[in-house]
């Protein structure tokens, strides 16, 4: 048993504990480890990873103007959005050093599907090659941030169309920009 006190520490009364504490610790151990003793990824949803880099691929798109390795767009609030270097039409040449094809690109992008895992993309934008580092983020977190950013865009549009005095409009738009900046800063730290 993992919670036994070593022989040389048996006389230390401060190491003794109530049996209910040990039972709770045992219950926690069962939650965070598999039957084989390996640690579970508690950030996965339903035992399966559901992460995203936020890259929308043209591979499954009906848009005939884009090739199978080209970026169709990025998801608001995702790592790809926060980093800000990917654009529609960029071509992904490699993922973590492995050459990308139309067939393997979705699998390479998914990678380990572990929250926080890093991914390096080699990208071609109209003949200009560059590398970009992204982090996989839990899809539910990205969707939540995406909803907030959508609301901010809606509020900005309403403010711009309003008949408010210009100083009020400017003040409200400035506040929205500060909120947006804080959200982006928080996402970069994630």
Automatic annotation (TrEMBL):
Gene3D superfamilies: 2.30.42.10. It comes from Hemiselmis andersenii. Residues 48-127 form the PDZ domain. It comes from the Eukaryota. This is PDZ domain-containing protein.
């Amino acid at each position: 048993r993992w919670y036994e006190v070593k022989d040389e520490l048996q006389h230390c009364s401060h190491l003794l504990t109530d049996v209910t504490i040990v039972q709770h610790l045992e219950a926690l151990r069962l939650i965070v480890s598999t039957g084989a003793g390996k640690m579970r990824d508690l950030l996965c949803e339903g035992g399966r990873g559901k992460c995203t880099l936020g890259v929308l691929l043209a591979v499954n798109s009906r848009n005939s103007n884009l090739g199978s390795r080209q970026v169709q767009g990025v998801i608001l609030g995702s790592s790809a959005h926060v980093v800000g270097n990917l654009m529609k039409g960029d071509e992904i040449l490699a993922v973590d050093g492995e050459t990308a094809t139309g067939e393997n690109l979705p699998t390479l992008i998914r990678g380990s599907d572990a929250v926080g895992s890093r991914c390096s993309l080699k990208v071609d934008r109209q003949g200009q090659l560059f590398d970009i580092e992204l982090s996989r983020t839990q899809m539910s977190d990205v969707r939540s941030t995406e909803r907030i950013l959508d609301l901010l865009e809606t509020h900005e549009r309403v403010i711009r169309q309003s008949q408010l005095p210009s100083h009020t409009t400017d003040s409200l738009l400035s506040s929205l920009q500060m909120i947006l900046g804080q959200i982006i800063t928080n996402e970069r730290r994630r």
